[in-house]
């Protein structure tokens, strides 16, 4: 691993802090200076106890949120230099999200849920549907196209969510405790699917997890505690080092 | 997101909440329906009344006390029968083109019955001047007026009510405490939904009426010009004569057009007032839309957060909710419009109130209902668009 050829950097977080303000003057420092890099085709596990700032970091990496201080660079350009609309476009084109609680729209069928990110980019309805069906087939749900979330098991719902994340062919998938709501066996299936995606398509993967076993399977690991990185494979903490 | 896609999403969301959408639509529907219906009634009334005035003929001049401003307090009449005679002398051509009338509201009694009528004391020339006809019997003449004879012509409805199935001619009616002999029954006029019912009037000689009402005055003078072209000449003659004869110049000569103008203006204002009142219910409907859209935004906070995470921009979300509000109100507007038109027909059919649906009220109702969706949808839609994706996704 230490001898790999340099790969292009996908995103960099440089000395990022994020402080939430509660009410008038209660400040919650969720991240207190995190430097961190994700390369194309990387797979990274973020571990740490509850409240250590994992989700906060993932939201920043996913351009869902802006840091209080520091930089988050995508393709070398800071998110702070981009408008909300540009960030929306960045999320749509480069990033796929997988959430712990799936976040499927209950009124929509599996296909329509997977189509969702595609409606925010140009294209015909038929083309979108075809791509959604292909994505569902690739996660093994080709026979559940018109099922609504309530008609699917938890594992199946998370697969639909994965199809929704990969249908846009993102460079990076961000998964916040994707197995947190699933039993061990189903969770393993979901993780295998994520790893398969990562290996077959070269999609970079950042997974938050509580489970050491899952973390072991990632190329690299970082551990957060109280908003700072306290351990893991520190080689990627300092940008540019090998 | 394309507009078409946004439209699809809006329809889907509304259908997904059928009952709520229907109830919200109902508010707008009722508003639009009442605008269309009330304006139709106002417009119908206007056409009916101006039509009735036109029915009097364009050659007729009305001479009334006061300055002719309908807004000012009524002026006590200065006119006398001598004024009528003076005008008659000075008008060119055939006589009997001038008539006078004095009006009172004494009840009428006969055969132990007592009914409310309008008592019209008129000169012998009156029926000719205002072109009314006697259906049965004979009108009274100059000599009856000269001798204040107590004879009466009954309106068709009056005759029917007092003497059902029998011939009223020769019978006696009591007005005040004075007995009059019925000499004729008027031709039925019919159809007046507004203004005085001409079929409930009773005509007696003006001299007898003046005695009955204990007055020396008359209330109004009528002049029939020989043709539409000579209306102006006759008006000048009337004004010249009356200016010489009357101490005060408090009188006005109105042609049919003058009256239609004034009455039409009043009714137009009435129509607008009705539209404004109905507009308030439309406004209430709009507030309902706003309210329900806010509820919808709050219920769908997680959906909004998700859509943003997946690449929706602020304006995609705003547009989606705005479109939803506008679909709701446009739907309510269209159904309300059709309902209003339908109800206007029903009203025209079953009630003596005419109703006339006008293009402007239709366009107004539709435009306003879509506008209501826009105005009352903006606040919820902007709130939706501005939601922070992280917070929205955590919302439960
Ligand atoms: N929206 C918020 N407002 C205020 N405090 C927050 C908010 N989100 C997270 N926090 C706080 O920031 C810290 C880190 O939260 P989070 O990143 O969710 O931790 P993790 O995902 O590791 O459990 C916690 O103390 C949490 O209470
Ligand atoms: Mg978390």
Describe the protein's architecture and organization:
- The complex is a heterodimer of chains A (242) and B (396).
- Chain A has 242 residues and is α/β, with parallel strands linked by helices.
- Chain A has one domain (9-236): Rossmann fold.
- Helix content of chain A is 31%, strand content 27%.
- Chain A contains seven helices and ten strands.
- Chain A has helices at 54-61, 84-94, 110-115, 125-138, 154-166, 184-201, 212-217, and strands at residues 9-22, 26-39, 43-47, 69-74, 77-78, 95-98, 172-176, 204-208, 220-225, 228-232.
- In chain A, the strands form two sheets. Chain A has a six-stranded mixed sheet, with helices on both faces. In chain A, strands 2-1-4-5 form a four-stranded antiparallel sheet, covered by helices on one side.
- In chain A, β1 (9-22) and β2 form a beta hairpin.
- The longest helix of chain A has 18 residues, at 184-201.
- Chain A is globular and about 50 Å long.
- Residues 236-242 of chain A have low confidence and may be disordered.
- With 396 residues, chain B is an alpha+beta fold.
- Chain B has two domains: 3-51 and 265-394, no CATH class; 79-245, no CATH class.
- Helix content of chain B is 57%, strand content 16%.
- Chain B contains 13 helices and twelve strands.
- In chain B, strands 1, 2, 3, 4, 5, 6, 7, 8, 9, 10, 11 and 12 form a twelve-stranded mixed sheet that branches.
- In chain B, α1 crosses α11 (314-350), α9 (256-299) packs parallel to α12 and α11 packs antiparallel against α12.
- The longest helix of chain B is centred in the C-terminal third of the chain and has 44 residues, at 256-299.
- Chain A binds chain B through residues 59, 62, 64-65, 84-85, 88-89, 91-93, 97, 99, 103, 105, 107, 116-117, 119-122, 125, 164, 168, and chain B through 1-2, 5, 9, 12-13, 16, 302-303, 305-316, 388-390, 393.
- Adenosine-5'-diphosphate is lined by residues 20, 22, 28, 30, 48, 50-56 of chain A.
- Magnesium ion binds next to α1 of chain A.
